[in-house]
Predict the 3D structure of the following.
Amino acid sequence: MTGAAFRHSRWHEYALLMRLHRPIGILLLLWPTLWALWIASDGRPDPLILAVFVLGTIVMRSAGCVINDFADREFDPHVRRTRERPLAARRIAPQEALVLFAALLAFALWLVTRLDRFTMLLSLGGAALAITYPFFKRFFPAPQVYLGLAFGWAVPMAFAAEAGSLPRVAWLLLLTAVLWATIYDTQYAMVDREDDRTLGLKSTAILFGDMDRALIGVMQVMMLIALLLVGRLQQFGGWYWAGVAVAAALFTYQQWLIRERERDRCFRAFLNNNYVGLAIFAGTAAQYAFGDQGDSA
């Protein structure tokens, strides 16, 4: 199939529905998974487990986008940023979206059967979070926190798969992932705040009001403290702390970007979080590759 033919095919619409043209969501979901895999395995993740989690991240993010757009198909046509999505623009039928979602979810569940029973049981919770998240913005005032739990659920799964247990550091990393997703999805919600308010949808950007920047800052500090505790538990050294320092500098830059609450700059702050996740992973991986650390707690 030629490029032009693909762009006019159903497959192209399905790819758009899964947001494969916008990999930022995959990366934001992947970074905490990689943090957890590296720490759970002492820097030597099993190749099969690593492949399953990376592919599973892509599949579950795609499935989450599909079910989100299905849930929002009556709202998205009224939001400037989302009105051209395939379901909103009526280029794909709701039934098609449900079939695609079921296929992606089935593939994700098949992937997890390559792992142990403990991880498989935890994956059921992750699937439930992914399915229910899109509906929480109807009534839950802070759906970004619920999204953080859904995005971060790969952390305990990674520890279950690699270590067969859930030590304290696993829960600290889960807390870190929840805080981080709440930070960047609040920045994302600041872009759509007026549209969401008009449509009666909930978000932390609406909930926080004029305190949005301050509360994002509080969560950024809390996340850095959680990362500090992770480093102390793992007895990490300079490589890890360098990664955390870069993350702190990037958070400072994000505060500068959102200072006037301009839509484009808030979106840029959201995108900048990819580098936060990368910095933390790079510091963690370098610590295991080049540094010394004590036994895991």
